[in-house]
Amino acid sequence: MYFPKLSLVFLLVASVAAGQEMPNPQAMQMQVQKIAQERPREAEAAARAFLQLVAPDRISGLDSLKATALDPYWMEVGQLTVQFDLVQNLMRRDSVRAGLVARMFGVEVNARALQRSYRGASEAQRSQLRSQLERLIGHHSDLEDPLRGLEVADIERRLAEVRAETQRRRDKRTEFVKWSVDDIIRDATRPQ
């Protein structure tokens, strides 16, 4: 019912691009499920705050979900809370990437709402919902492009740094060898 793969794929891209450790998808899913089971009030508040940021038009849908189906409501709260935490952590390192990821998560909120609607929809409604989902996922993909562009720029920058350091070490090879030999001899002649 939820888009854990979709969220995680793009989150991994954002995390790697920002030079962070890759989030563990299983650990993230376990966090979502833990929140859904324990139902902490602070998770509800965090989810609502994040929803206000990324998809304010979906707050009424979250309220409706709470009134009609508590288990799906808490799964959504868990998903939003984990996403909020990830965006906050990313924001500390890279606000541009965090903004893109937050926008992608906003698209995902809307996609999950359409997914829930799809279950009880008629065939005619399903066709319309499918079209809406295709537009949303297309938009999600469009948001991924600049994120990948940032990743490519980071890789190119790091590659240029490594190449420059390699060339510097080649240029100073004789000095480095002399210094290393001097250190070895100095250590060998020290009293023990």
Concise overview:
Helix content is 87%, strand content 0%. It is mainly alpha-helical and 192 residues long.
Question: Helix and strand layout, with pairings?
Answer:
Elements: H1 4-17, H2 25-38, H3 41-54, H4 59-68, H5 70-93, H6 95-119, H7 123-171, H8 173-189
Helix pairs in contact: 1-5, 1-6, 1-7, 2-5, 3-5, 4-5, 5-6, 6-7
Give an overview of the whole structure.
This protein is elongated. The longest helix has 49 residues, at 123-171. By secondary structure, it is mostly helical. It contains eight helices and no strands. The chain has one domain.
Number of strands: 0
Give the number of helices.
8
Q: In total, how many domains does the architecture comprise?
A: 1
Structural class: mainly alpha
Radius of gyration: 24 Å
* Percent strand: under 5%
CA distance, first residue to last residue? 69 Å
Sequence stretches where pLDDT stays below 50 over 5 or more residues: none
Average predicted confidence as pLDDT: 89
**Overall morphology:** elongated
SSE ordering: HHHHHHHH
Percent range for helical residues? Answer: over 70%
Specify the biggest β-sheet: none
Task: List descriptors.
single chain; 192 residues; 87% helix; elongated
